[in-house]
Amino acid sequence: MNKLELIKKINKLFSEALIIEKNPIIKIKISKTKFISFMNILKTNKDLSFDMLYDHTAIDWIYKNEFELIYNLYSTTYGYHIIVSVNISRSDPRIITVSNIWSISEWQERETYDLFGILYEDHKDLRRLFLNDDWNGYPLRKDYKDNFMLER
Amino acid sequence: MTIHLRNLNEILRTPKNNKIEKEYFINMGPQHPSTHGVLRLILRVEGEIIKEIIPVLGYIHRGIEKIGEHQTYRQFIHLTDRCDYLSAMINNWAVAKVVESHFQIETNDRIETIRTILSELQRLQSHTLWWGVFAMDLGALTGFFYGYRDREMLTEILEDTCGSRLTMNFIQPGGLMYDIKKTFSLKVKKYLIHLKAKINEYEDLISNNIIFQKRTQNIGILTKEMALSIGATGPVLRASGICHDLRKLEPYGVYDKVKFAVPIGNTGDSWDRYLVRIEEMKESIKIIEQLIDNIPPGKHMTMKFASKIKLPTGSYYGHVETARGILGVFIVSDGKEYPYRIHLRSPCFHNLWCITKIAIGLKLADLVAVLSTLDLIIPDIDR
Fold this sequence. Notes:
The complex is a heterodimer of chains A (152) and B (383).
Chain A: H1 3-13, E1 18-21, E2 26-30, H2 35-44, E3 52-61, E4 66-74, E5 81-89, E6 94-96, H3 105-116, E7 119-121
Parallel strand pairs in A: 2-5, 6-7
Antiparallel strand pairs in A: 1-2, 3-4, 4-5
Chain B: H1 8-13, E1 23-28, E2 40-46, E3 49-56, H2 64-68, H3 73-80, H4 88-102, H5 109-137, H6 141-162, E4 171-172, E5 175-176, H7 184-207, H8 210-216, H9 224-229, H10 235-239, H11 246-249, H12 270-291, E6 314-321, E7 326-333, E8 341-345, H13 347-353, H14 355-358, H15 364-374, H16 378-382
Antiparallel strand pairs in B: 1-2, 2-3, 4-5, 6-7, 7-8
């Protein structure tokens, strides 16, 4: 797995992609507007062919008023492994779904919606995954409170 | 750009087509013996043919990721035992591996060798239980007793080593909780001789049994493309013909020093998933046999238990190959003793998703066969 080669390829294909970390896993930052076209390239380009979405999750940066979305991608053809990160506003947490590209993200996005309240545009079946439909709030947010929580 | 929030009641009330009087919903679980835990599947069936599967999760959701934000890294390890409880040892290693590689904790050869042996033992323990349960799901109760008998002997060895039968909490950042006992290698060697003979028995009983072959061959075919797009890992992915095993691709522990093969299937049906696991058991035995006589001397722990682990600010990801697939640990640290965010990429969560695609058009009884060969652990899905 040649990391420099991969970085060159990505820079050539998509100049807006910002490489913020190189070790041990390449981490790429992308803006919300360019996000879906970048993800499409990662999947369909024959030199990259990121065919597996290992993992998708979010981080609540409450002091920056932002959610950071993490997409963990793997290419079985070349053995490349990258992390794509997108920052979205905390007050309007919307992002376009990638479930047309990787089928599993339909579930991963439902989990992230359930626990973080991130709204995925064009998602076919957006509903809570673990919690009840009538649950109030999103538990993995840092400001989440309910009556059963103990004070620390 | 539309966001349409749905709920379960809405889906169950909406008619799918005009022939609605022929179709009806069946509720499978959460207390169904063949779902091995509290998995609930809502099935839309026409006669005996499955038309749609709606999995309903969360019956054992404990919010492990939220609890993890208030636990130190060493405390978090005991929570990973409770995810995939049949790969507890390997789950412990996953967290320990991430913490060690980013906190500059050096381990020695003895620790890595023992860890490798223990995780292969754990894989054997998991697969023997799976074999028994698989036989029971398809109606052969004898297989269940055989599988449990052989698992029990292994569980006793693990209990003797770490004091616990299910929730090991044994592999820690920096080493192992205790050193292994002097009798450990002898016991393991004895057990391997026993198990090798028993695997032949397994094959006589089920692999060569025409009823089992007819019930699993060409049932629940998971194609290569689908397996990749659903993010399946472990035996489920390998049965679809993709050689993807972290033990080979990114060797950790002492996997780069041992010789073993990665069994892969052809078609990706239930039968292939069965065969891949049986072959994996044989490979695990080979790995342990190569290591058990050559455990190097040294300390079992390289750091003090009381010392605090504070990962530097940043995000870290590491993964290991458990008995069911890839367990990834994603840690975001802000430099404190507790993680800012900790996320587990669980193998069963991803493996289960394909059931909504591959089991459509099958008969109800075949769904049990497909579920069984996916080898699901529900607490691992719900976390």
